[in-house]
Amino acid sequence: MGQDQTKQQIEKGLQLYQSNQTEKALQVWMKVLEKSSDLVGRFRVLGCLVTAHSEMGRYKEMLKFAVVQIDTARELEDADFLLESYLNLARSNEKLCEFHKTISYCKTCLGLPGTRAGAQLGGQVSLSMGNAFLGLSVFQKALESFEKALRYAHNNDDAMLECRVCCSLGSFYAQVKESMKIALQHGDRPLQALCLLCFADIHRSRGDLETAFPRYDSAMSIMTEIGNRLGQVQVLLGVAKCWVARKALDKALDAIERAQDLAEEVGNKLSQLKLHCLSEGIYRSKGLQRELRAHVVRFHECVEETELYCGLCGESIGERNSRLQALPCSHIFHLRCLQSNGTRSCPNCRRSSMKPGFV
Q: Which segments constitute the RING-type domain (predicted)?
């Protein structure tokens, strides 16, 4: 079966599928898969089979076709096809509740070099990762992923993605609500504070700032009561983002300054990085170059202090999506840098390098 005939049969299957003749559509697509020699056509029909089995709830079959699609993408040697197939693999594992595998495949998607499909599929990757974190009850990372997916949806006017993210946020809210009920029953103040912070972050991500502010106030009250200074930093960071959304930049800077003092007291470099990054954006929008430069310098000092940079190329780790490798000595490098360097010992400490671990 050649390219033109393959395309015609894929379209025929889509017409059958859209008219609710699912089994007939599957038969047409399976015939294409058996007889077509066109790799691009085979890739497309595998995508149709993945989607159909997902909607039918046949998740093991969905996974089977996603694995075949990965092999086809590798034969095509096309980064766009590879990204799409890894996303389907992540979704398949998400449906099967293999959440650790889902996160791993999503990270692989994010680590692929820049592609044309990246802007379109990046939001779906973030959504799938958020659902996996939610399945593992890692609430903060789940919310961060959902917020990233929402930004993709807004930037690309993708109403369907926005709808799916809002559905996931609804599930997230229900799960946090259940955790709050348990916290209240057992008088667990730290868990109550965490749930209030999650509620506030959810309302902020939805743009409901009027509801977010009181939640942040309640979370801050408990965090102060129990002496959780890092929790107070997280609350103030959320408050600052709310003020930024309201264009009240001076109030945002006030919250950031209080958070920076607390972050420096506890020595939390990651929080300091986030705060300096937020400050950069504010000072850039205000056109205050001297303050902007000061925060850029401090940001890079924090990066160096935490060793969040590649020891070979010197580029900061995390500024772009790149695959990393950790050597047995715990030093971390870009995978591409180690491959091009060709040395069998760590470039930093010169220890002999055994089989590295991916991170």
A: 310-350
Write the DSSP symbol of residue 345: B
Name which of 153, 101, 78, 21 is nearest 88 in CA terms.
101
Bridge partners, residue 332, by sequence: 326
Instruction: Please give the distance of CA 206 from its chain centroid, rounded to a whole number.
Output: 17
Cβ count within 10 A of residue 111: 15
The whole-angstrom separation of Cα 245 and Cα 213 is 12
Q: Are 191 and 183 in contact (CB under 8 A)?
A: yes
Residue 351 falls in which region: left (phi positive, over 0), alpha (psi -120 to 50) or beta: beta
pLDDT in tens, 201-256: 888 888 889 999 999 999 999 999 998 988 999 999 999 999 999 999 999 999 99
Residue-wise over 257-290: b if at least 16 C-beta within 10 A, else e? eebbebbeeeebbebbbbbbebbbebbeeeeeee
Question: Residue 42: CA atoms inside 13 Å, Cβ hemisphere, count?
Answer: 20
pTM beyond 0.90 = no
Query: Which tokens is 4 given?
Result: 């033109």
Cβ-contact 121, 85 below 8 angstroms: no
The count of residues in the chain is 359
Tell me which residue has tokens 């890894």: 86
Residue 267 to residue 270: CA distance in whole angstroms: 9
Structure tokens belonging to residue 273: 């990085």
Give the separation between CA 263 and CA 269, rounded to whole angstroms.
7
